[in-house]
Amino acid sequence: MSPANEQPRALYPSRSGAGATLGHHLYGRTRQPILMIGVTPTGVEVAASASKAIGCEFDVLVAAHIRLEGLGIVGALAEDGDAVIDPEFEPRFSMLDAMEESIDRARRAVKRERLLFRGQRPLRSVTGKTVVIVDGHLTSPWKVLAAAAAVAPGEPAHLLVAAPVGTRTVQERMQARRVDFVCPSVVMDPGGHPRPFGDPGDPSAERLRSIVVAREAA
Fold first, then answer.
1. pLDDT of 176-210, one tens digit each?
2. Distance CA 105, CA 210 (A)
């Protein structure tokens, strides 16, 4: 392979390795009892590994982006929580129907995916626990913020968002919302790192592995 075609060096050898590193970073910032929640599908393997690193409970929560044609991601929602919309997005009146349709589509996707990842089992109780919402490679804050909003009514003792890799833009969004954010590797490119993990970058395979890991948590 010529140098021009070589893949960039991965930040972490694998998602599980990234999760172990994240767990070590969280160790001094969290108190038991801790519940590590992986946002599906990209945070599941990372969260499972992080939970093993610090010896805590693990579960998964299903979230979906809200997208509009021509604009991309404008927000997200998670399970039974309300939609979290980018405050900089100001829809015109003519876009309201498309917005409602996009939110409905995201809710249907969440309902379908929840059956795959958790079946009929409810999310483990968050009451009185340190709850860590985990994703893998954060280039948009909306899914983890929607997940945090969905679990907040359960009255966790402390709520954090964490990811092994995130962008400076995401970090700034978290700071603006006063969200406790743990991210060992912050990159300047808004598009994120070209190769955050050394695992094969096949979304279908990642999703399948995540479903297996989530089901094992049951």
1. 999 999 999 999 999 999 999 998 878 888 889 99
2. 22
Residue 32 φ then ψ, to 5°: -70, 150
HSE-CB for 83 with a 13 A CA cutoff? 20
Q: Dig out the tokens for 71 from the structure.
A: 């604009």
19-217 carries CATH number 3.40.50.2020: yes
Task: Give the whole-angstrom CA distance, residue 136 versus residue 196.
Answer: 9
Whole-structure pTM over 0.90, yes or no? Answer: yes
User: Is residue 17 within a helix (H) or strand (E), and if so which, with residue range?
Assistant: helix 15-27
Domain range list for the chain: 19-217
Sign of the torsion angle spanned by Cα atoms 48, 62, 43, 130: negative
Q: What is the DSSP letter of 123?
A: P
CA-atom Rg of the chain in angstroms: 17
- Model confidence over 2-57: pLDDT tens digits? 455 577 899 999 999 999 999 999 998 999 999 999 999 999 999 999 999 999 99
Contact assessment for residue 85 and residue 58, using Cβ atoms and an 8 Å cutoff: no
User: Is residue 197 a contact partner of residue 10, using CB atoms and an 8 Å limit?
Assistant: yes
